[in-house]
Specification:
The chain is α/β, with parallel strands linked by helices. The protein has a single domain (9-270), classed as Metal-dependent hydrolases (TIM Barrel, Alpha-Beta Barrel), CATH 3.20.20.140. 40% of the residues lie in helices and 16% in strands. It has ten helices and eight strands. The chain has helices at 25-34, 50-59, 81-91, 110-127, 139-149, 165-173, 190-198, 231-242, 246-261, 267-270, and strands at 9-14, 37-43, 63-67, 95-102, 131-136, 156-158, 176-180, 204-206. Strand 2, helix 2 (50-59) and strand 3 form a beta-alpha-beta unit. It is globular and about 55 Å long. The mean pLDDT is 95. The structure holds zinc ion.
Length: 274
């Protein structure tokens, strides 16, 4: 009996530097690899965790770093953050992010968020790096910025996509990929599932956002902290909700992840063409 080759995955957005899980990274990487997750794109969120992210990437070829300032943490910015970020990105095989816009909090300084995000976009364009973007309740402002900058020069993604199905086609025109997380597994995730069904197979990505967004799976971990090994479970549920065979979705997401992050993923972590 010949068994099917194991499907391979790239987790395009997680936070392995997070203090809640950093002590457990050897186990997390081992469990991810056993599940077929050969590569994890881990995003720093502020200058303070750039170095912890860099250390993980140096230790494990399967961990690929992105550096950026998350819109929640603009208070942490040093006066020369742009220089610090630019120097680091120029010196390493890495992407940019997590960066973006989040207007959930009504008191958020929207102008400042747009200015900092535009700085990240400019850097991605200048250094030709992929960009890992967070957008929540800020779609009009996001599209407004894209209209000004034009389509991305190097590909980028919107992580844990929460926008409408109508927006999918608009964002695809700007060379953006759309990434789906455990939020697509929630029983009531009608809007996300609609968006999932609207996205082109050559623009879809999958992520865990570990240690957050623990997926709704039949056998959840009692500790409740998400980790990249849960990506195949997210893919299975997403495929069912999109009405496509699991291998077709997984192979598309893998090829797309390589299209976005290929230039910065070490050959060992890229997996086989499948
Ligand atoms: Zn994140």
């Amino acid at each position: 009996m010949t068994s099917e080759p194991m499907l391979q995955y790239v987790d395009v957005h997680c936070h392995l530097h997070d203090p809640r899980i950093i002590e457990d990274i050897p186990g997390i990487v081992q469990r991810a690899e056993a599940a077929g997750v050969t590569c994890m794109v881990t995003c720093a969120t502020m200058e303070e965790n750039f170095e912890a992210t860099a250390v993980l990437a140096r230790q494990y070829p399967a961990i690929v770093p992105c550096y950026g300032i998350h819109p929640w943490f603009l208070d942490s910015l040093s006066p020369d953050w742009q220089q610090t970020l630019g120097d680091r990105v120029a010196a390493e095989a890495c992407g940019i992010g997590e960066t973006g816009l989040d207007f959930m909090d009504k008191n958020a300084d929207r102008d400042r968020q747009m200015e900092v995000f535009a700085g990240h976009l400019a850097l991605a364009r200048e250094l030709e790096r992929p960009i890992n973007i967070h957008v929540r309740k800020a779609w009009d402002s996001f599209v407004q910025i894209l209209k000004k900058t034009g389509p991305l020069k190097t590909p980028g993604l919107v992580h844990s996509f929460s926008g409408s199905a109508e927006l999918v086609k608009v964002l695809e025109r700007y060379h953006l990929y759309l990434s789906f997380s455990g939020s697509v597994t929630r029983p009531g995730a009608k809007k996300v599932v609609k968006a999932l069904n609207a996205v082109s197979m050559d623009r879809i990505l999958l992520e865990t956002d570990s240690p957050d967004i623990y997926p709704s799976v039949p056998d959840p971990d009692p500790h409740g902290l998400n980790e990249p090994r849960n990506l195949p479970a997210i893919a299975r549920i997403a495929a069912a909700r999109a009405g496509v065979p699991v291998p077709a979705l997984v192979r598309s997401a893998h090829a797309n992840a390589l299209a976005v992050f290929g230039p910065i993923i070490p050959a060992d972590a890229a997996g086989q063409k499948q």
